[in-house]
Amino acid sequence: MASPTTELFTGIGRRGHEALLEKVQGSLRFDLEHDQQTDHWHLAISRGDVTVTQEDRPADCVVRTDQGLFDKLATGESNAIASLLRNRMTVEGNLRLLVLFERLLPGPPTARHPRPATRGRWRRDR
């Protein structure tokens, strides 16, 4: 069984084009540490067209964290910016690319869409 991280990156690579990144140009590299070694995931984004490889190549934004935390990000159990603020991950380069990449991460598993949750309570009764 593949890790959530592997499933996330292979899914992004398989889709090839992400509408949420149509105005984005740049590259990200994720250095994920586990068991005394580091796995690399490189994403090249060109106007929504995304190419994913496992190469250790230079990138505009380099994110370093441990594999366990990134698995939680890939399943929506953790948040990238909150993890960055807690010093559980580091970023070098263009932080904006990480913020834009976060659009591709799933939300929390228990999250619900806000409209059905309010059930019309935001409207005034007439």
TrEMBL record:
Record domain SCP2: where: 17-105
Residues forming coiled coils: none
Xref: Gene3D superfamilies: SCP2 sterol-binding domain
Superkingdom, natural source: Bacteria
InterPro entries named in the record: SCP2_sterol-bd_dom, SCP2_sterol-bd_dom_sf
Signal peptide: none
Name the UniProt record assigns to this protein: SCP-2 sterol transfer family protein
